[in-house]
Design a protein that fits this description.
The protein contains 13 helices and ten strands. Helix content is about 50%, strand content about 15%. The protein binds glycine.
Length: about 350
């Protein structure tokens, strides 16, 4: 896979203008959703000839019809194999825009400008692009990294506290799979008074952790599975909440998933009690605890069995023996999984 440049900037307008000068292209296309078109595009210095494609916001619109609209806009406005796309938005825009770039004329160059914390530290980096197929998330896609990911905490100024916390959950995951120093810097980030100047270096550290793993295993054959920590249980919580008609933000489900999977790590791999307590305390304060009871255990178990990371009906987890001590492709018995759910519920 081609390497991806990650650029951190406090002046996204000037930096984008510089990048547009550096990357050879004939026509320029900018993809935004209706929110980023209003709030983020004005923060960028787009040349007059840029053609803006606006799509409806929300993961429920990350489907083939929206993608077809983007392809048609590219085609009807004369995009060639030498055109450049700039995706400005959260994970929905960078995933769909990346996939449009991967597939239009068998691949054109593109830049990601993530505008949410979740997209900065996860969706927009690492080269995964794609769309949903009906209820199946990211079912259709390609590994196709952006030429550049331009990261600026400036965009987070208007992000609400829930979405900030949601992105931070993926940063907690990156801290847990990297090293104790990184983890302790995250533990000292004060969510009561979030400061963007303190957050920006933490974001870059987080992206670097992900990039190092992706570089070793771009197509998720082995170590990239480390990035699934917290997600086996997290995805089950997320789907259950959606089925109940009370959807939760992705990162909240991941944070709750982390509590359970760190407990399982403790049970199976000897993950230290003090770090488990510390993570639990932080997550409880920022994300509270999900509302579920014993009656939902079978449903959660069944959802975990259907996770696309599994082979057959065995449930696969990424677990830790300690911070940075990654154990991929671990399984657990139904009793252990129910004990994990007891732990999350009772904490
Ligand atoms: N979001 C996990 C990954 O990119 O592999």
């Amino acid at each position: 896979m081609k390497p991806q440049r990650i650029i951190s900037t406090e002046q996204p307008d000037a930096m984008l203008a510089q990048l547009l000068g550096e990357i050879d292209h004939d026509r320029l296309f900018v993809l935004a959703d209706e929110n980023t078109a209003t709030h983020c595009i004005p923060l960028l210095r787009l040349p007059q000839e840029a053609h803006l494609i606006t799509i409806e916001a929300g993961d429920e619109n990350k489907h083939i019809e929206t993608l077809t609209h983007v392809w048609e806009e590219l085609s009807s406005h004369g995009a060639t194999r030498h055109s450049l796309m700039v995706n400005v938005g959260g994970g929905m825009v960078t995933d769909l825009g990346g996939f449009a770039a991967a597939t239009y004329k068998r691949g054109i160059h593109y830049i990601n400008v993530p505008t949410t914390l979740l997209a900065m530290v996860d969706a927009a980096v690492g080269g995964k692009t794609g769309i949903n197929l009906h209820a199946l998330k990211n079912e259709i896609g390609a590994f196709y990294p952006a030429d550049v990911v331009m990261v600026s905490a400036t965009f987070l100024g208007t992000l609400d506290a829930g979405n900030l916390a949601s992105g931070f959950a993926e940063m907690l995951k990156h801290g847990l799979i990297s090293n104790a120093d990184h983890w302790s810097r995250l533990m000292s980030f004060d969510f009561e008074k979030p400061q963007l100047d303190i957050l920006q270096p933490l974001i870059m550290e987080s992206i670097q952790t992900k990039e190092e793993i992706v570089k070793q295993d771009p197509t998720e054959q082995h170590i990239r599975k480390a990035l699934n920590l917290g997600h086996t249980l997290g995805h089950a919580f997320e789907t259950m909440a959606m089925r109940r008609g009370t959807p939760c933000l992705h990162g909240y489900a991941v944070a709750w998933g982390l509590i359970g999977e760190l407990y399982l790590s403790h049970l199976r791999e000897g993950f230290p009690t003090d770090t488990l307590r510390q993570a639990l305390q932080y997550i409880k304060e920022v994300y509270s605890i999900p509302d579920f009871g014993c009656k939902q255990y079978d449903e959660l178990y069944e959802l975990m069995q259907h996770d696309k990371k599994n082979r057959g009906t065995e449930i696969h987890f990424t677990l830790l023996g300690g911070i940075g001590d990654i154990h991929i492709d671990r399984t657990a018995t139904k009793e252990e999984i129910f004990e994990m759910l007891d732990f999350v519920r009772e904490c």
